[in-house]
Amino acid sequence: MSWITWALILTGVGLNAAAQLLLKVATRPLAHFSQFSADTLGNAVMILFRSLPFWAGMICYGASVCVWLGALSKAPVSTAYPMLSLGYVVVATVSVLWLGESMGPAKVLGIALICAGVFLVSRSSG
Predict the structure, then answer these.
(1) Rounded CA gap, 23 and 17, in Å?
(2) How far is the C-alpha of 61 from the C-alpha of 74, rounded, in Å?
(3) Are 52 and 126 in contact (CB under 8 A)?
(4) 3-class DSSP state for residue 64?
(5) Which letter does DSSP use for residue 32 in this model?
(6) Number of domains in the chain
(7) Burial (0-12, 13-18, 19+ Cβ within 10 Å), 63
(8) Measured CA angle at 37 (ends 31, 41), to 5 deg
(9) What does the pLDDT read at residue 50?
């Protein structure tokens, strides 16, 4: 695959991961809702619609779809799709560094296995 194809794949993965992280930040003010009801749903929607991280996350999602379409037009889906797994690695790492979440040995091992699998897929010829 060409460098532009790899750039499209990795940009799509990065934008998708950024969207996840931004939406997580946007939902932090919703943590105090203890029940799900029509009232809390309305309040939650209003909180999200006034949230810059929510809108930034939605823009990242839209952009990731556009970039991903470009990637799929150039790469075999059997190669491109497994690369989305790199999003797990990015999100897990950034959630520890930026959001203060924890990562135990099982998560680290799982991420290492994902990386090994992505490497094998990217190196396979058919």
Answers:
(1) 10
(2) 20
(3) no
(4) helix
(5) T
(6) 1
(7) middle
(8) 60
(9) 96
Residue among 91, 120, 115, 90 at smallest CA distance from 25: 91
Nearest to 62 by CA among 23, 118, 6, 99: 23
Q: What is the mean pLDDT of each run of 10 residues along the chain (126 residues)?
A: 93 97 94 77 90 98 97 92 90 93 93 89 71
Domain range for 89: 3-123
Within 10 angstroms of residue 87's Cβ, the number of other Cβ atoms is 20
How far apart are the C-alpha atoms of 42 and 52, rounded to whole Å?
18
Residue matched to tokens 């470009």 = 70
Which token pair is 61?
A: 């999602």
Report the alpha-carbon distance of residue 55 to residue 5 in Å, rounded: 28
pLDDT of residue 46: 92
pLDDT of residue 125: 61
∠103-51-55 over CA atoms, to 5°?
A: 85
User: Angle CA(27)–CA(100)–CA(110) in degrees, nearest 5?
Assistant: 95
Contact between 54 and 48 (Cβ < 8 Å) = yes
Nearest to 89 by CA among 16, 27, 23: 16
